[in-house]
Design goal:
Number of helices: 16
Strand content: 15-25%
Radius of gyration: 22 Å
CATH superfamily of the largest domain: Nucleoside phosphorylase/phosphoribosyltransferase catalytic domain
Structural class: alpha/beta
Order of helices and strands: HHHHEHEHHEHHEHEEHHHHEEHEEEHEE
Number of strands: 13
CATH architecture of the largest domain: 3-Layer(aba) Sandwich
Distance between the termini: 36 Å
Helix content: 40-55%
Oligomer: single chain
CATH class of the largest domain: Alpha Beta
Strand order of the largest sheet: 1-4-5-13
Number of domains: 3
CATH topology of the largest domain: Pyrimidine Nucleoside Phosphorylase, Chain A, domain 2
Length: about 425
């Protein structure tokens, strides 16, 4: 077996890594046979030199096989999953899960915490009183049998190598590397055992990959790698150059998700939920039409499934009927400084300001204020008069400077064009 030095030297010289060489690094991350310095060099080499599809497959498999594999689809045929690369106000998972389950499509989602300027689905769901998000294989199967839906955080036995390597990626400047992103996402998604997957890959200034071409490449790599593992997948590249929906912030986003599940809520959220759900149903070949999905939103069945699922995972009985969105006490309305058109919104900066206000973590273990929120009152391309509300912020403490920095994220100009919400659909190449 080659030494870490020899393996690193191969990539430095521009040569491909073998399956065994990649597995050596992954296994070494857990055994300690590779030092953190060597692992950091491994990640940087992958980021700078790149990994081809075979290397990406090998890295994904090694990380997948570093831990438990639940193989849930062995007991629940046709099981599906959904993943988003994250953004500001992105609460689609809260709607898509119960919507698909209400239509008869079983779905499991192993979700995570907030990352950088984006909020995690697990953090949002913790606004529901009593909800228990800890999942293992047995509990997932029980929930799927009862409700058709399981959402939560996985045990530490799922892809432990990813947990180790991700921490190093965050400190070595290698987070934004397509092959490493693919392996990180799929090592967990494949571990659950879902057969059909849909990916929402964000692009625009509020995405981790703001360049559309980078987003297209990532989406293509995700669906191609799924195909290599015998899974059927589709990816939609969608806009994140402005917040999704009207509300951003944990409790507020749960409230907006409930509105959408009740047939109401903002049009962009509904449009994206239906597009992602329909794409997944097509891939799964389950016979569920877009009209079926729309009906489940409008007749209340999706909302009822959300309530039933949450109660099955420990939420207080009747929680959804008693729901009242709780917002932080200090409200500030930020107005347009002049008449014009909303030419752009600094979406990533809005997310970072929400983190600074307490809605996210600067360090692991930080407490989150679930009631901090941003209400976006305008969309890119809207005409506004001087003094018109651009947004409202709800803060846990009075902070005029912070509030004004939210206002600065809205660019008022002479013209602006509303971006397309859905940029492209990607399927496996040559399949």
């Amino acid at each position: 077996m080659a030494t870490p030095y020899e393996i690193l030297d191969r990539k430095r010289a521009g040569r491909r890594w073998s399956v065994d060489e990649i597995r050596s690094a992954v296994e070494g991350s857990l055994s300690g046979s590779w030092s953190e310095a060597q692992l950091g060099a491994f990640l940087m080499a992958a980021a700078v030199r790149g990994l081809d599809s075979a290397e990406t497959d090998a890295l994904t498999r090694a990380m997948l096989e570093s831990g438990d594999q639940w193989a849930l689809a062995d007991a629940v045929p046709g099981l599906a999953d959904k993943h988003s690369t994250g953004g500001v106000g992105d609460k689609t998972s809260l709607v898509i899960g119960p919507l698909l389950a209400a239509c008869g499509q079983p779905i499991v989602m192993l979700t995570g915490r907030g990352l950088g300027h984006t909020a995690g689905t697990a953090d949002k769901l913790e606004a529901i009183p009593g909800l228990d998000l800890e999942l293992n294989r047995a509990r997932s199967l029980s929930l799927l049998e009862d409700t058709g839906l399981a959402i939560g955080v996985a045990t530490e036995g799922i892809a432990p190598a990813d947990r180790k390597l991700y921490g190093l990626r965050d400190t070595t400047g290698t987070v934004v590397c397509p092959a490493l992103i693919v392996a990180s996402i799929l090592s967990k998604k494949l571990a659950s055992g879902a057969q059909h997957l849909v990916f929402d890959v964000k692009t625009g200034n509020g995405a981790f990959l703001p360049d559309p071409e980078d987003s297209f490449a990532l989406g293509q790599a995700l669906v191609d790698t799924c195909a290599d593992f015998g899974r059927r997948a589709v990816a939609l590249v969608t806009d994140m150059s402005q917040p999704l929906g009207r509300w951003s912030g944990h409790t507020a986003e749960v409230g907006e998700a409930i509105e959408c599940l009740s047939g109401a809520g903002p049009s962009d959220l509904r449009q994206l939920v239906l597009a992602l759900s329909a794409a997944l149903c097509e891939v799964a070949g389950n016979g569920i039409s877009r009209q079926d999905l729309e009906t489940a939103l409008d007749d209340g069945s999706a909302k009822r499934r959300f309530a039933h699922w949450a109660e099955a995972q420990g939420a207080e009985r009747g929680w959804i009927d008693a729901w009242s969105t709780r917002l932080a006490p200090h409200q500030v309305t930020l107005e347009a400084p002049r008449a014009g058109v909303v030419a752009g919104i600094a979406t990533r900066q809005l997310g970072l300001l929400l983190v600074e206000a307490g809605a996210g973590r600067r360090q692991p273990g930080d407490a989150i204020d679930l009631e901090v929120a941003l209400e976006t009152c305008v969309r890119v391309g809207d005409s506004v008069e001087r003094g018109a509300p651009l947004c409202k912020v709800y803060l846990g403490r009075s902070d005029d400077d912070l509030a004004q920095r939210f206002q600065a994220c809205f660019q008022i100009g002479e013209a602006g064009t509303a971006p397309s919400l859905i940029c492209r659909m990607l399927r496996p190449r040559g399949r």
